Amino acid sequence: MPRPGGNPEFGTKYRFDYGREKPLSAQVKAQILPETKQQLKDLAEKQKCTVPDIIRTAIDEYLQKNVE
Question: Which Gene Ontology BP terms does the record give (predicted)?
């Protein structure tokens, strides 16, 4: 039961929009070396993006090259 005086539109009206056509809902986990993680962090800082953005881009590029 919602809290009295709460906002009933909180989950719909105030949802954050990432600017993507489709929401990202699936997850993949990979174990990497600490040095690789640091390189990804440094690259993300240099490119002013996030590590997940770099990984998504790399996966997309790999799939475009290798999936027929």
Answer: regulation of DNA-templated transcription
Write the pLDDT tens digit of every residue in 17-66: 677 788 888 999 999 999 999 999 999 999 999 999 999 999 999 999 99
Q: What are the structural domains, with CATH classification, of the chain? A: 32-68 (1.10.1220)
| φ/ψ of residue 62, rounded to 5 | -60, -45
Output the pTM of the full model. 0.69
C-alpha–C-alpha distance, residues 57 and 15, integer Å: 25
CB-CB contact of 55 with 63 (8 Å) = no
Residues contacting residue 10 through CB under 8 Å, at least 6 positions apart: none
HSE-CB for 40 with a 13 A CA cutoff: 15
